[in-house]
Design a protein that fits this description.
66% of the residues lie in helices and 6% in strands. It is mainly alpha-helical.
Length: 416
């Protein structure tokens, strides 16, 4: 099919998706829910006012307009004093941090004791993390000023609480965009014509591609609205270059343990945001591949959606299965729901098995490869192998056979 034909099909299918009120309604509902969560956490009047003053304290500025918003100047002094005390209490977190002890404590708490190569693999990972701790101390990354983590929990709110919501919401928008457009022919009762020909199969591929791009667009809108409102409520002005590993960013983790976010490499707030966005894109593309594969297999959007939900539930439960051998790492890499579980702790020490640099992209890459191969394989199946009917036209390399009122062009050789 020529490029012009592809663009025409893409435009028509894209318009169908954009005119679907259900998708827009879901996107609006998701945006409102996320904004409501943000408002309750950091957007309400009292917290918002306090964050404005705290931002001035962190940046060591004295905005008189902001100061007037406080009941009196004493409120700013109290917050400044509380910030200084918090800083003094936590500035030495890295002096006491030993990643090998963290590993042992986790193994005892989880009753997880790896064996053989797996034991060495995990130990090596945590030794690398300990070297990273020494690097953080040497480069003074720990000293960057930020909103006190234990008080405001900015990182976990943005990347864990909101992050998990965004993953689910974007995945739903992606799956529904693809299922709607790929099942359109069946609902219009024209699927037999599309499925029976090579051109029709190609059109289904174009539909899948269009649905994927539409899902990315809906996800981008949702993510943009959520993040814009969040950063409106919590100013990051002058804080984008703060290290994620700073002691001020640190929050309580893992059954109340309090220690810093030990990232695998030096990472600022803006870098973490960009990498998180990249992983979000990878996740929804995996959802797209899974949705396309299931829809090609079943041909019914209702069944496909149900199977997709059940599959993700099964993978989510399977993510909690632990094996003491290296097979545990392989199983984790083949299970993308681990990205949902560890959201908020990407690119840093988190799960014992996955505390190595690049695990997020390994999960996306490994899962994406086998899903892509499955879709390519399915694209070669489900074609017509024989047609029986009335021969109505003959050409040098093709014949047209009428069957059920439909003419099928079949490629032939000169001898045939």
């Amino acid at each position: 099919m020529e490029k012009g034909g592809f663009m025409r099909i893409f435009k028509l299918e894209f318009q169908k998706i954009m005119k679907n009120p259900m998708l827009w309604l879901l996107a609006v509902i998701f945006c409102l829910v996320n904004c409501l969560v943000i408002y309750n956490e950091v957007g309400n009047k009292d917290t918002s006012k306090e964050l404005v003053i705290m931002h001035d304290i962190i940046k060591k500025t004295d905005d008189t307009n902001h100061s007037r918003q406080a009941k009196n100047r004493n409120e700013r002094k109290q917050l400044s004093k509380a910030y200084q005390e918090y800083y003094k209490e936590n500035i030495d977190l890295y002096d006491k941090l030993d990643m090998t002890k963290i590993l042992k404590q986790k193994e005892e708490m989880l009753q997880y004791h790896p064996k053989g190569f797996m034991k060495k693999f995990v130990k090596d990972n945590y030794e690398h993390l300990q070297k990273r701790v020494e690097e953080i101390k040497s480069d003074k990354e720990y000293n960057d000023a930020f909103y006190p983590g234990q008080y405001y929990e900015i990182h976990s709110l943005l990347y864990s609480k909101l992050g998990k919501k965004l993953i689910v919401e974007m995945s739903l928008l992606m799956a529904l965009s693809i299922l709607f457009i790929m099942d359109y022919e069946r609902l219009q009762k024209t699927n037999d014509l599309v499925d029976a020909t090579r051109t029709g199969k190609r059109i289904m591929d174009y539909k899948a591609f269009t649905g994927t791009l539409s899902g990315i667009l809906f996800s981008a809108i949702l993510c943009s609205v959520t993040w814009i409102y969040f950063f409106y409520c919590v100013s990051f002005k002058g804080l984008w270059n703060v290290s994620v590993a700073s002691t001020l960013v640190a929050e309580k983790r893992y059954s109340g343990w309090f220690y810093p976010f030990v990232t695998f490499f030096k990472m600022t707030q803006i870098q973490y945001l960009i990498l998180t966005l990249t992983v979000y894109l990878g996740i929804i593309l995996l959802i797209a591949l899974a949705t396309i594969a299931i829809q090609f297999l079943l041909g019914n959007s209702y069944f496909s959606f149900a199977i997709l939900i059940l599959l993700n539930m099964a993978l989510f439960l399977g993510a909690y299965y632990s094996n003491v051998t290296f097979m545990n790492v392989i199983l984790r890499l083949l299970n993308p729901t681990n990205l949902y579980i560890t959201s908020g702790a990407w690119f840093m020490e988190n799960d014992i098995t996955l505390s190595f640099a690049g695990n997020e992209f390994w999960i996306i890459g490994v899962t994406g490869v086998w899903m892509t191969l499955w879709n390519v394989r399915k694209g070669t199946l489900n074609m017509l192998y024989s047609v029986r009917g009335k021969l109505i036209a003959i050409e040098s390399n093709a014949a047209v056979v009428e069957c059920g009122g439909v003419g099928y062009m079949c490629q032939t050789t000169m001898n045939t």
